[in-house]
Amino acid sequence: MRTRLMKALNRLRPRSRWLRLVLAGLALIALVATFALRQPAPIGHWDSADGQDRFLRAYTEAFAALPDPTETIDVRTDYGIVRVYRFAGTGADDGGTNTPLLLLPGRASGTPVWADNVPLLLPIGDVYTVDLLGEPGMSVQNRPIDSDEAQAEWLHQTLQALPPDEFHLVGLSIGGWTAVNLALHRPDHIASMTVIDPVYVFADMPFGTIVRSIPAALPWLPRSWRDSFNSYTAGGAPVEDEPVADMIEAGMQHYKLRLPQPTRISEERLRRLDLPVLAIIAGESVMHDPQQAVETARRALPRGTVRLYPGASHAVNGEQPERIAADIAGFVEETA
């Protein structure tokens, strides 16, 4: 009896060892997933002081490429403190507009992403830039932003607190969505709107881009994965040792976003935009189907002007800043 029992146990031991390994592996995966998906705070925050310091160094270096701001303004809203910079326009003697531009950056980029654009836009008038609330930058979120309405409200309160009555909004990427979302909920202070290759506005994000973005969003993976994704969105351009790219990568790794997924803007809602809109679409963008985006914009915008930039990537603001400035200048002049 004992011999038969020992033989049976010997037959089970290999299977038991295999089962223990599987269970240990599953436990490790569960542990990693728990840390990856946990949300220890309902607002955006830095993962560490060292991570924040790394981002701030990159932000400062990238910011040095901008002209010196005339004014730095911190606006207190119900959702946090919003950092705004004002750059004095240079076109007062050349017919520049009295209505300033207000620039909204893309994800994880902040004001420095506009380094190539601000000098070219100053002949149009004063230029204000905003670091988006809930994103890495100099704005500080202190209350949950949990809906499209809340996204519009903090920006509305920011514009309301600034001296000008109206602004020509200019939004890049997610900043384009932010501008459209504001116009749909609180259009009070908007004279016109320019959206530069906006996401979730005129077309869905392709599945392949979503899949490629997942590894880039995992902070414990090597930096090369994030650099690879950033290069992919910039048409394959190298991003190593580029100050703005360093800043974006540091923000992606060390800042924990706690913002809701943007709602895709439907054509029905686009038709409600009763203001002039300039839509600039990058012909080689990987963030949406460019041709579909152009067709939707032309079909749905009641007062729309649509420009397709052949050969441009999602990083079009750095690739073709002169053309963008010329198009915005002409657009603003027509809407004055």
TrEMBL record:
This is Alpha/beta hydrolase. Keywords: Hydrolase. PANTHER family: MONOACYLGLYCEROL LIPASE, MONOACYLGLYCEROL LIPASE ABHD6. It holds the Pfam family Abhydrolase_1. Residues 100-232 form the AB hydrolase-1 domain. GO terms for cellular component: membrane. One of its GO terms (biological process) is acylglycerol catabolic process. InterPro entries: AB_hydrolase_1, AB_hydrolase_fold, AB_hydrolase_sf. GO terms for molecular function: monoacylglycerol lipase activity. It comes from the Bacteria.
